[in-house]
Amino acid sequence: MEIENQNTYGPVNPGFKFPIEGGYSVLVGSNNSGKSSILQLIYKKLYENQGGQYDSVANNEGDLKGMICLIPTDRDYVAKDGSPAGKTLEEYNGKLYDVLSGNIRGCDRPMEPSISELTRLIFNKEFVSNTTKINLYLKRLGLSNYKVRDGQILKFDDGGNEIEVSFQGSGLRSILPILAALSEPKIKVLLIDEPEKSLESKVKKGLRKIFLEASKEKIIIIATQSHLFLNNDDPTKNYEVMKTEGYVETNRMEDETDLQNAAFKLLGNNINDLFLPENYIITEGSSDQVIVERVLEIIDPDIAKKIKVYSASGDSSKIEGIIKLTGEAIRFFIAGNNPYKERIVVLIDKQSSKKSQERVDKWLSNPILEKRIFQLDLPSIEEYIPPEIYESAGRNKEEDLKSIKEKKNFKDKKQLKTEISNQIKLSLNEENINQIPIIKKAAEKAIRLTKKSTMSEAKKEQVEKK
């Protein structure tokens, strides 16, 4: 089932089609690409329901006109009381259709019908049950609950005080009509323009989860500029909206790679602006991480600040588990058009089992990772570091290795390794890092690739040859 536009509608040209499917669909694109126009067109077509072509959307339960809800961006105002004053959502939808029937809504004046009335028109359909549902949603999102006081005034708890809804922050006011529409079972199609408006990231993520859950019973279509509202569960339910020669087009995403590209575009296409590191070095364990961080600081302290050393194993105590986690980290960083795909560096230990070494050999043969995987010639960094460096740290290598081996409890073993690596870190300098050449080469490679990210193309070619 799809809507098809017969006449020019704002920037939406005749012949434009968009599928109306169950579940949670996302329109994503840059400013002024036409996302809002598509939502308004969908509303118009469903409201008209010419020939009953969209009856299935309403599950044949009645007139579709009272089962659709369009929530636009200008929802800063909300009525302070919950009384519908005899008005209904059906009447509201009729007035909205009158506005949208000829062309997209202009913004030369406040919207009519007033969006401030929408919340109370929705939750008054089933006042008690909808109020309960809305408060449950608010609690899940970490927001204050409301109560209905004298005169049906909506008041929210604010540190022991009760404050009218009209005096609440813009985020809470903006999300209220969305939650009201989600709570009403008779609404079968919910169209939301920029649900992220005035919301912090944690609330956005929680709201997306609610959308995914609610979309089992409703058709939910949103227009957004936030990567946090992309449908990660089903990449094919995301549509990139773009404008070509003044007309709107949509491109349906096919897989996770398309989803990653869309998220990166929404985040600005530049990892520097996101306060993310320029590069990563993946290591197996936290001891490796501490040593590598120090080597980076010694070689180039300024560039070292731009490189994140990532320990793939976390707290895993199983060798097979560690190498599996390392593999998962590698796959993530080289997937699709990940910005780190051509620059991450990997440092891994010599593997004690044949199965694990076969995995490593597979990574070593990966053309994407060519010359960027470094493997120690011993099973652990504690074994790889020479006795002289242990001595400079005031430790004895033979005794430390023996103590590590004797530790049967993983927590105790990890604590000892942390103690050793932290002391060795303090003893490293420009001279003795030459005694750990594999670690030094991995650090130097990461530094070169990080510098390369800001170089001219000619200089990049020179770095590639090294």
Can you describe this structure in just a few lines?
With 466 residues, this protein is an alpha/beta fold. Helix content is 41%, strand content 15%.
Describe the protein's topology.
Blueprint: E1 2-4, E2 17-19, E3 23-28, H1 35-48, E4 68-71, H2 89-100, H3 118-123, H4 127-140, E5 146-149, E6 153-158, E7 161-164, H5 170-183, E8 189-193, H6 201-214, E9 219-224, E10 238-244, E11 247-252, H7 256-266, E12 279-283, H8 286-299, H9 301-304, E13 307-311, H10 319-334, E14 345-348, H11 354-364, E15 373-375, H12 381-384, H13 387-392, H14 397-406, H15 410-427, H16 437-452, H17 457-464
Parallel strand pairs: 3-9, 3-10, 4-8, 8-9, 12-13, 12-14, 14-15
Antiparallel strand pairs: 1-2, 5-6, 6-7, 10-11
The named CATH superfamily of the largest domain = P-loop containing nucleotide triphosphate hydrolases
**Biggest sheet character:** 6 strands, mixed
CATH topology of the largest domain: Rossmann fold
Give the count of structural domains: 2
Bin the helical content: 40-55%
CATH architecture of the largest domain: 3-Layer(aba) Sandwich
* Number of beta strands: 15
List the strand order in the largest sheet: 4-8-9-3-10-11
Structural class: alpha/beta
What proportion strand?
15-25%
